[in-house]
Amino acid sequence: MYPVERHQAILDLLNKNDAVQVTELVELLAVSEMTIRRDLDVLERKGLLRRVHGGAISNHGRSYEPPFLLRTTEQTEEKRRIGRAAAALIQKGDSVMLDVGTTTLEIARNLTGQQNLTIVTPCFQIAALLAEHPGIRLILTGGIMRQGELSLVGHLAVRTVQDFYVDKFFMGAAGVDLEVGFTEFNVEDTLVKQAMLRSAKDITAVVDSSKFGQVAFTAIAPLQAVNRIITDSGLSPQLSLAIQQMGIELILV
Q1: pLDDT, tens digit, for every residue of 14-48?
Q2: I need a labelling partner for 1 at 20 to 30 A (CA). Which of 10, 50, 118, 178 fits?
Q3: What is the pTM of this model?
Q4: Which domain holds residue 42?
Q5: Assigned domain for 173 exists
Q6: Cβ neighbours of residue 105 under 8 Å, at least 6 residues apart?
Q7: Quick one: 75 and 46 in the same domain?
Q8: What share of the chain is helix, strand, coil (3-state, %, to 5)?
Q9: Does one domain contain both 11 and 75?
Q10: CA 196 to chain centre
Q11: One domain for residues 217 and 119
């Protein structure tokens, strides 16, 4: 296993348990204790965890936002399936808002051959992917660019979104909780999402199953604010039933 793969495995375990022990990592990753300690040192220097006696603990709270590039390595196959299913809902002639995020980026990958679409997005990665496709009219929201995330935020982004009324909005989220609703790491991104929610006739949340049961820093909206949720088949039957009982269409892929 390469170091980057070990580091990802350690961070995945930390995200689930908030703490890891050197001994359990040695057994899980089949490497020496010295190797694990070096890995933990590297991750601590990057600010991704905090070393404690015998292991490490999470170095962040609910407002911590994992880097975009790191998120692209998580649940990749699930996000691809969700992206394909979401893109299948988009028809010729639609006007669409695409949220910032690694899952909405997968939707954009499936739109490159489409014709007569209007795409509004605050996401630089999506804009770069779709910019050279003649069948797509692309509108960037403007605003202040968030470094690393490459999303556009601030009053300019919100004001631009408020000027449009689109057919469909595809929204990502950092957390999905039955009681709290959809939540996000960053307040400024949340304000843009809320503006897009008000501007769309039909709303789909695209979130992989690892986001369920998670609560991030700031509230976006209750679950009932969306028409449907597209997620992967890893969602538990209990959560699936509860969502459907709320009157929300659920698509599992």
Answers
A1: 877 778 899 999 999 999 999 999 999 998 887 77
A2: 50
A3: 0.77
A4: 3-58
A5: yes
A6: 72, 83, 123, 125, 126, 129
A7: no
A8: 40, 25, 35
A9: no
A10: 16
A11: yes
